[in-house]
């Protein structure tokens, strides 16, 4: 490990953050790269944008992000969602973008485009998603916070929803992130310490349609960005440490208008039948390295077989007890891994429930 790791000196920085911007606004353009990671760059604007229509398309060098060859490297970023910036404050904004190739087709890493078309085509079902994002905070050396150097902490038990020194680690980052998401207008619905020391969860949602993917990606960006200030690394790996520890998931809670209404359970059961038929296709887009997490132990189901049940945390899909009692509500797909792409996950769920749409012209 390099011992010259740089941690933000927020006290020195504060003086500059307060400087007058002379009417200009900073827009942080954020996009997803060719490795399921996040990138960003800053644009100075002459005035505050009111909507994404006020934001210019921009571009970057895709050969540096595994998104384009060196001899044809320009990739375009098109703004699709706009949020107040909790880091810079004022009129400054965060801008979520889609990536497009120069020939006018979506970049190979642009999974949002087709997901958005699926959401649009099924808008009448008013589909809500609530995702539970689990993650692990690591020191600059890549070892989880709260773990003895090169060793292991006491077995899991006291950490989940824990309080107190030695039980939870890095709560400052978690608090900062929760507030930052709220400021940005992200529908963050909660936060809790997880089963493994250094592991946490937050939930985004319910959000309708494509807004969930946009908000979840921006919430991940904020977590990385805040982590910089504390010198912490954020890991979205589904099994960050091998051994007798829970992995990290991205439980995906889903409901349609019909499922939320009286008698909705029959729509949930119909969805279960459809999900069962496409288990293998779903697992393909539910995150890389998920096989290390989905062992059938540690509150997961078998990776090979679809199952569902009321209040069962060992099945692929859980129907919450309260929903079974009410005869309506939502279901929880527990299969997605913490590093899964929310556009692909919510997209394939809608496709499986309501059918494919014609491919976009390429
Ligand atoms: P768990 O008991 O599995 O830990 P959480 O409370 O962490 O559940 O997360 C539940 C998620 O489900 C939240 O993001 C919440 O917003 C979302 N949710 C609640 N109701 C619905 C619904 N009707 N449709 C979709 N998502 C929902
Ligand atoms: Mn949860
Ligand atoms: Mn959890
Ligand atoms: Mn859950």
From TrEMBL:
Q: Which of UniProt's keywords are assigned here?
A: ATP-binding, Ligase, Nucleotide-binding
The subunit structure is: Homooctamer.
Taking every annotated instance into account, which residue ranges of this chain make up the domain GS beta-grasp? Answer: 25-104
Q: Which reaction does it catalyse?
A: L-glutamate + NH4(+) + ATP = L-glutamine + ADP + phosphate + H(+)
Name of the protein: Glutamine synthetase
Which organism does this record belong to?
A: Knufia fluminis
How is this protein annotated for GO cellular component?
cytoplasm
User: GO:BP terms for this protein?
Assistant: glutamine biosynthetic process
Which is an annotated GO molecular function term of this record?
Answer: ATP binding
* Chain ranges of the GS catalytic domain: 111-362
Renumbered to this chain, region (Disordered) spans: 43-71
Query: What are the leading ranks of the lineage?
Result: Eukaryota, Fungi, Dikarya, Ascomycota, Pezizomycotina
Going by the record, the broad EC class of this enzyme is ligase
In which family does this protein belong, per the annotation? Belongs to the glutamine synthetase family.
Q: PANTHER family given for it?
A: GLUTAMINE SYNTHETASE, GLUTAMINE SYNTHETASE 2 CYTOPLASMIC
| Record-listed E.C. numbers | 6.3.1.2
